[in-house]
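Page 42, continued from yesterday. The earlier attempt failed because a stray header line got pasted into the input along with the sequence. Redoing it now with the clean sequence only.
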Amino acid sequence: MTEDAQRRTYVLDTSVLVHDPTALFRFEEHDVCLPAAVLEELDAAKEGLSEVARNARQVSRFLDALLTGSTPGSLGDGVPLGHGRPGDPSGVLFFETNGHGHGDAAILAAAGRLREGPGATPVLVSKDINLRIRAQVAGIAAEDYESDRVIDDVDLLPTGVAELPEASWAEAQSADGGWWVPVPADASWRLNQCLYNDAVEAVVRSVSDGQAFLAPVTDYRTGNAVWGVRARNREQNFALHLLMDPGIDLVTLLGAAGTGKTLLTLAAGLAQTMDQGRYREVIATRATVAIGEEIGYLPGTEEEKMTPWMGALMDNLEVLSAPESTFGGDWARAATADLLHSRVRIRSLSFMRGRTFLEKFVILDEAQNLTAKQMKTLITRAGPGTKVICLGNIGQIDTPYLTESTSGLTYVVDRLKDWPHSGHVTLQRGERSRLADYASDVL
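This time it went through. Structure tokens are written below.
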């Protein structure tokens, strides 16, 4: 092993590799060690179509490529992780195969043997909190894997909404379709960011030479309605504006339960599919992560299997399917519901690979439970004329090993915040009921 005091040896747990297969190459000048127990667990996890199985197979491919040309006798010196090019890792990969057994105990034992041998002090890297605790109790340094962290503090994540300073508005110059407004020195306005003050609600359309062009947003509170739905607050009005804008291909909506994310999105999708003919149908999907006991295998087709997971969407669809007029009674309501259900398709994320959505309004619910790789898999399915809406609450993550700062939804909001065809709004105010609002505050 290396004798450089500044160089470390990171022992990777299986949880890190199945979470991010590229973790092998994320430690720059430091060395990486894989215990034999990790190789066994990767082999056991490789079967199937799950994301864990795909990642396990990808790790195996990486290892196979790294070991190409190596001989059993040369592995003791380690395998270079990079090719010496700028930006490549300069560390080496070691395998610890002296022990026996399997599972966490074998991984801890391997880290313990490395600690007792010569060279750099090993650090166990794991997404498993309990394994890190056991390592620290045993006197082994342990860390969480943070290379996939999008931002250090989720409070730094943009909300998509900001107040328009009165000083800037006082210098506004009217132009065709909006106003040119000076950008404050301490502000960093982005395209499609929503601004407001007592006099106006607007969206940023362009920024150049310290000036921003603002266009007024459509009033969906007292004037226009979207499939019978009106905004109840400023953030909802901004959200509807972005959802109805044909120039925006991706919209991300964050907010706690009851802020109206699903209802607004579904109403916008139906209006643009049924009334305007902009899209051919609405596609809805979500991550199937249970928050309680598993209910076992579900019978039926893909759509029937997904229906129990789409309860929030189906509840809102039921609300939107009620005709504005009671003329026709139950028959009219049933006919309307059947018509809407024929244009709203429920799909499983498990079968998204290889598909292309053409002229579809795609709704991804509970997006906070997806990894960055899964989000990329879904968003890159979008073909010409497709709009993707990502909904979620990063305060309610149910997927193991995901946090607010590593969620795929956080990743998308941060990486696409400057793209001119994306928009983002964080909904702040709950509109479900006074009981729900009070319970959310005090419970």
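Notes: Residues 51-67 form the longest helix (17 residues).
Reminder to self: strip header lines before submitting.
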